[in-house]
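Query structure, 227 tokens:
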């Protein structure tokens, strides 16, 4: 009886280990898939964002050229020869025009600098994403190799990741489905093992043990049979 209980506990431990492995692989494959999807969307959107920056920068350059001309004209008007009859109000208005033109030029210049900084940042993000995509492909390949050692996994779960980020996303979906099936099978098997242990314990101890763990049943049997 004790040998049978020990065998049941051994099988329960093996299934528990397999469940832990399946859970870990499923979690990691899900993380790789989610990140691949994010990177794929980011890299797909980058060309459009760069094109929008190109248009914005072209408009900014035109606006800066116009603002520079406006400032130069205002400064010339404010620097008219002192011999000319100009009222104080006209002089103040000329100064205000220079100030407004300078403010507009400063505003446009700041916008140009902001767009340039956005372009640099976007290119850096794109470069980092491409580098991470390569690392992600390596991680997916490592996981695929480990999946070959998972008992009961379907052929679709053993397939290698496809090329590119889209291939990793598709692979991750197949792996999730395959491991979901394996996990269900292992959980059903563990339930059967627990019932088997409880039935053995109930037959020996003469009491209902439904819901007890395999380890607890074995300990109780050992205590009872060695008295």
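Result returned for the query:
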């Amino acid at each position: 009886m004790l040998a049978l209980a020990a065998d049941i506990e051994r099988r329960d431990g093996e299934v528990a280990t397999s469940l832990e492995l399946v859970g870990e692989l499923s979690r990691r494959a899900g993380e790789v898939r989610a990140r691949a999807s994010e990177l794929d969307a980011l890299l797909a959107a980058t060309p459009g964002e760069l094109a929008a920056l190109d248009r914005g920068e072209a408009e900014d350059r035109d606006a800066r050229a116009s603002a520079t001309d406006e400032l130069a004209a205002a400064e010339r008007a404010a620097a008219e020869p002192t011999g000319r009859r100009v009222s104080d109000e006209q002089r103040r208005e000329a100064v205000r025009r220079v100030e407004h033109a300078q403010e507009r030029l400063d505003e446009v210049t700041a916008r140009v600098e902001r767009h340039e900084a956005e372009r640099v940042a976007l290119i850096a993000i794109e470069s980092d994403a491409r580098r991470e995509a390569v690392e992600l492909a390596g991680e997916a390949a490592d996981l695929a190799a480990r999946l070959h050692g998972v008992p009961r996994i379907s052929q679709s779960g053993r397939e290698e990741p496809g090329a590119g980020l889209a291939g990793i996303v598709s692979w991750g979906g197949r792996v999730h489905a395959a491991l979901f099936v394996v996990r269900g099978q292992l959980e059903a098997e563990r339930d059967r093992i627990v019932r088997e242990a409880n039935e053995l314990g109930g037959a020996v101890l003469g009491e209902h043990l439904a819901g007890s763990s395999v380890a607890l049943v074995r300990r109780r049997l050992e205590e009872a049979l060695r008295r």
